[in-house]
Structures are given as structure tokens and as C-alpha cells.
Design brief:
The protein has 482 residues and is of the alpha/beta class. It is 37% helix and 20% strand. The protein contains 17 helices and 18 strands. The strands form 5 sheets. Strands 1-4-7-6-5-8-9-12-16 form a 9-stranded mixed β-sheet, with helices on both faces. A hairpin with a 2-residue loop joins strand 2 and strand 3 (27-32). Helix 13 (326-336) crosses helix 17 (441-453). The N and C termini lie far apart (47 Å). The protein binds nicotinamide-adenine-dinucleotide and sulfoquinovose-uridine-C1,5'-diphosphate (USQ). Sulfoquinovose-uridine-C1,5'-diphosphate is lined by residues 188-190, 232-234, 270, 297-298, 325-326, 329, 341-343, 348, 350-351, 387, 414, 416.
């Protein structure tokens, strides 16, 4: 059995930044929350009533116990079972309680990697603050990890804390000694970053400082460690030329150079990723850090082989107007009979991928690391769709399931091109062996059926977008009271 050392943080009396250090036997934990704004009394009540303070906002380090080798053997998939290198490799997953991070943590653990999750659970706090919830019921991170251990015999270590607090991150690095760090741990919603000034500042502070701290931790404690950082296709924007993978060769006034591809991000969130990329590229040059920037497209789906093993392992599935992403939202909308919310003309085209491919791509990046000093960029998506394409696909498959799917054109709350050229390269991960799960009728069918199964949990008042790119101001906004 894993055992836990728990130091409780009382959020009610918690100033915005305060450091706690607590040691219990062999386990120690350090935490400093730096929240963008005070928790209002309503959130406090919810936190209290759901015992979140006790269950989720505590600092926990689960100490690894010896693995159950028999169970492990029987569950490891054939290909990696015979690879002794991958079995010993230690991977730290920052943001491992989130949508992409949880699926990846289980996948890598199942493949024989030694996994540690680092997360401050702030994503769960956003849900409470905004009054939103995942379509799927999700267990606490502690229960998730215990259930994984009981099913597979595998340990996942857990470090709860904020990576913007360097002391905490340093302790986690020294204790776990990662060989790879997969960094998912950021505020990832474009609309959230456009709610008001405080969320814009929070997003850029959290993402840019968190990533800087990871870079310093690698330099100081694990200089050989490979950083796999989740970037976004949105860093490139929608240029009127083909999008390359990270770099473009330009001839200007008779001279030629290969330069970082131009960045034209379109939200304070997407801009935070651009800043991250620049900081990582600089430290690769200056300190010899080895890094892979995965410019990921929009992710859809919810099931992976591992999350399917038990309800307590289910992943989150966001459908609300702040954290929900296009295709996932459309499936839930179709399931509850809400018209599909196409913003503006619907010609906005992006790269998309199945969450099963997210975990595959990260595994490929870890198994084929960048060289020392290399800043490598992969465009991580499998297919391009416009918003109208997605609406048409969901309508067609929904009708086959007997759903009456309608579409509405919502005035676009964002500032973005609605009709544009889009052709992004995405060959490097395929060359490494990615076998894409393309969006087919059967996948959409199963996603829609999944949404139908949980449709009683849908709060339809959370579906329409509430955040406007143009109306953002300095006045703190409460999304629920609008
Ligand atoms: P998510 O919000 O579900 O998960 C992010 C996790 O990071 C959460 O568990 C959160 O608590 C944690 N976190 C945030 N700030 C932290 C901090 N300072 N310290 C410790 N933990 C922190 O997001 P996701 O959808 O899983 O996205 C993961 C990453 O992938 C993000 O970097 C995002 O930008 C990128 N990405 C996501 C998508 C998508 O469609 N979901 C697409 C492209 C790129
Ligand atoms: N859109 C609609 N209707 C909706 C929701 C979205 O028309 O109900 C449109 C948006 O206007 C946008 C496109 O669909 O043009 C994609 O929006 P999204 O909300 O699905 O995705 P986005 O805001 O771009 O962000 C998501 C993730 C983010 C990640 C990004 C990858 O939240 O973390 O970085 O996808 S990318 O889009 O490639 O930048």
C-alpha cells in the first residue's frame, strides 16, 4: 500500500502567497499557493461542503511501495514489456491531474515507466470558482492513484504543490530525480485568460513563471533530463502560408537563415505559450537544455485504454463555455438537444487529435529524446477541420443515433479569422511511429453515446460562451453572476 503524508492548508485563512513546510517521518512537502484573486464566500462554502480543503487542497506525497511484479507483467503491453530501458525511466508529469496529464500518467505507468505526478489541483479549484463541472464524475487524485495501484499493482508518486513556488519544485526534483519531465501544468483555457485583467495576469504569470522554474530546476538538479513541453498550434495563428514544424527557412535580401516560425497568438493564454517557447529555446542554447515543444492541436475524446479500466480512473470531460473545446462541446450539445454553437462564420480551421494520440505522441517524444542543447518542435495533431466541418460531422452521426441536431451561428466572442487559409505540417511524429486514431463515424458515435450516458449531469446554462475578447476589462468578473 502507498502511504501518505498530509499537511493541510486552510484556504480560508490563506493569504495569496504563503509558504508551508511540514515534515512527517520520511515524507516532506512544501507548498506555496499564489492565487490570482481571493476566493469568494460562495466558493469557500462549496470547498467546505465538498471537503475539498481536506481532500484536494492538501499537500501529499505518496511514497512508492514495491511493485507487484506479477500484476505488472500481465498488464504491460507487449511492445514495451521487453524494453528494459523504458521500464526504468523516471518521468515527472507536471499537470498530471488534468485532462491530458492524467491520461498520459496512466499510459506511461502502464508502459512500465516510473511516474510521478506534480499538480497543485488548481484546475479543480477553477471548476468550483466558475460553478462548472466535468461531464464525467472524476475522483480525487488520491483515490485515482489508489485505484490504479489496486488494479495494476503500479505506483504513481504524487507531489501536490505549485510549480511557481521554486522551493516546492526543487524538493520534488531532488526527491524524484526525473529523467524526463512532461510539462502539462498550465492554465490552458483561452477564454479563461480573457475573462478579466486578473485572469490574464494569472495565466501569463502561472504559465511563464512555472515553465521558467522548470527550466531552472532542470539546470540545477537534472541537467540531463529531457523536457517535453506542451505548447499549442495556436502559437502560429492562421498565416496565409503553410505552417512548418517550428522553423522556417527564409531568404531575405539575398541571405538565407532558418528561423523560428513567426508567432501570431490570439489570446493571453496562447501568448503565454509563445513566451514559454522563447524561454525554452533560449535555455537550450545558453545552458544546453534538451527540449521538445509539442505544439498540440485541439484534443477530443475521453477514453484511453487505461482510463477505461475503472470508473474511478475516468478522465475529465469539459463542455462549458470556458474550458470546453469545440468537438467535445458539440457532442454534449447534440446529446442534450442544444443547438451546436458555431462561432461566427465557422470557417475557423484548426488541427485536432484524439486523446489516445496525445498519450502516444508524448510516449514517442520521451522514447526518442531531443539532443543536448536541441530545441525540437513537433506539430502534434492528426487532422484539420473547420468548425463547420465538425458541426456537419456531429449532425450526420447524431442523426444516425436518432438525435435531432440543430446548429446556431453565435456572434463570435473571440477575435479571430473566420475564413482563412490553413495548412500545417505534421510529419515528425508520424516519422517517429505515431499511428493516428482518425476521427471516424465510429469514434464520433462512441463519443456521442458517452455524452448521452452522462447527459443528466449537463448544466445547460454553462453551454453558451460568456467571455468576450473585446469586452475584457480591469473590473474583476464573476462568470456565474453574468
Ligand atoms: P487541464 O487544465 O485539464 O490540466 C492542467 C493541469 O495542470 C491541471 O491539473 C492543473 O491543476 C495543473 N496546473 C496548472 N497550473 C499549475 C501550477 N502552477 N502548478 C502545478 N500544477 C498546475 O489542461 P489540459 O487540457 O490537460 O492541457 C494540458 C496542457 O496541454 C496545457 O499546457 C495545454 O496548454 C496543452 N494543450 C491542451 C489542449 C487541449 O485541447 N486540452 C490542446 C493543446 C495543448
Ligand atoms: N469554437 C466554436 N464553438 C464553440 C467552441 C469553439 O466555434 O463552441 C471555435 C473557436 O472560436 C475556435 C475553435 O473553435 O476558432 C477552437 O476553439 P476551442 O475552444 O476548441 O480551442 P482553443 O480555444 O483554441 O483552445 C484549445 C485548448 C488549448 C489549446 C488549443 C489548441 O483549450 O489549451 O492550446 O485548443 S489550438 O487551437 O491549436 O491552439
Amino acid at each position: 500500500m502507498a502511504h501518505f503524508a498530509i499537511a493541510h492548508c486552510n484556504m480560508n485563512s490563506f493569504p495569496a502567497t504563503k509558504t508551508f513546510v511540514r515534515s512527517t517521518g520520511s515524507c516532506s512537502a512544501i507548498c506555496r499557493y499564489s492565487l490570482p484573486f481571493q476566493i469568494d464566500s460562495c466558493s469557500r462554502k462549496i470547498l467546505r461542503s465538498r471537503k475539498v480543503r481536506q481532500q484536494n487542497l492538501s499537500i501529499v506525497r505518496a511514497t512508492a511501495a514495491p511493485m507487484n511484479q506479477e500484476v505488472e507483467k500481465s498488464l504491460l503491453s507487449g511492445s514495451l514489456q521487453s524494453d528494459p530501458f523504458s521500464k526504468s525511466k523516471k518521468v515527472m508529469i507536471i499537470g498530471g491531474d488534468g485532462y491530458c496529464g492524467w491520461a498520459t500518467a496512466l499510459h506511461l505507468s502502464n508502459k512500465g515507466y516510473e511516474v510521478a505526478i506534480v499538480d497543485n489541483l488548481v484546475r479543480r479549484l477553477f471548476d468550483h470558482q466558475l460553478g462548472i463541472d466535468s461531464l464525467t464524475p472524476i475522483s480525487s487524485i488520491q483515490n485515482r492513484i489508489q485505484r490504479w495501484k489496486s488494479i495494476t499493482g503500479k505506483n504513481i508518486q504524487l507531489y501536490i504543490g505549485d510549480i511557481c513556488e521554486f522551493e516546492f519544485l526543487a524538493e520534488a526534483f531532488k526527491a524524484f530525480e526525473p529523467e524526463s519531465v512532461v510539462h502539462f501544468g498550465e492554465q490552458r483555457s483561452a477564454p479563461y485568460s480573457m475573462i478579466d485583467r486578473s485572469r490574464a495576469v494569472y495565466t501569463q504569470h502561472n504559465n511563464v513563471i512555472g515553465t521558467l522554474n522548470v527550466l531552472f530546476a532542470i539546470k540545477e538538479f537534472s541537467p540531463e533530463c529531457h523536457l517535453v513541453k506542451l505548447g499549442t498550434m495556436g502559437e502560429y495563428g492562421t498565416p496565409n502560408i503553410d505552417i512548418e514544424e517550428g522553423y522556417i527557412t527564409i531568404t531575405h535580401n539575398g541571405r538565407t537563415d532558418t528561423l523560428p516560425y513567426p508567432k501570431q497568438a490570439s489570446s493571453f493564454y496562447h501568448l503565454s505559450k509563445v513566451h514559454d517557447s522563447h524561454n525554452i529555446a533560449f535555455t537550450c542554447k545558453a545552458w544546453g537544455i534538451q527540449a521538445t515543444d509539442l505544439n498540440q492541436g485541439v484534443v477530443y475524446g475521453v477514453r484511453t485504454d487505461e482510463t477505461e479500466m475503472h470508473e474511478e480512473l475516468y478522465n475529465r470531460f469539459d463542455y462549458d463555455g470556458v474550458f470546453g473545446t469545440a468537438l467535445n462541446r458539440f457532442c454534449v450539445q447534440a446529446a442534450v438537444g442544444h443547438p451546436l454553437t458555431v462561432y461566427g462564420k465557422g470557417g475557423q480551421t484548426r488541427g485536432y487529435l484524439d486523446i489516445r494520440d496525445t498519450v502516444q505522441c508524448v510516449e514517442l517524444a520521451i522514447a526518442n529524446p531531443a539532443k543536448q542543447g536541441e530545441f525540437r518542435v513537433f506539430n502534434q495533431f492528426t487532422e484539420q477541420f473547420s468548425v463547420n466541418d465538425l458541426a456537419n460531422l456531429v449532425t450526420t452521426v447524431g442523426k444516425k443515433l436518432g438525435l435531432d441536431v440543430q446548429t446556431m451561428n453565435v456572434p463570435n466572442p473571440r477575435v479571430e479569422a473566420e475564413e482563412h487559409y490553413y495548412n500545417a505540417k505534421h510529419t515528425k511524429l508520424i516519422e517517429l511511429g505515431l499511428q493516428p486514431h482518425l476521427l471516424s463515424d465510429s469514434l464520433l458515435d462512441s463519443l456521442l453515446n458517452f455524452a448521452i450516458k452522462y447527459k443528466d449531469r449537463v448544466d445547460t446554462t454553462q453551454i453558451m460562451p460568456t467571455v468576450s475578447w473585446k469586452k475584457i476589462g480591469v473590473k474583476p468578473q464573476s462568470v456565474t453572476s453574468r
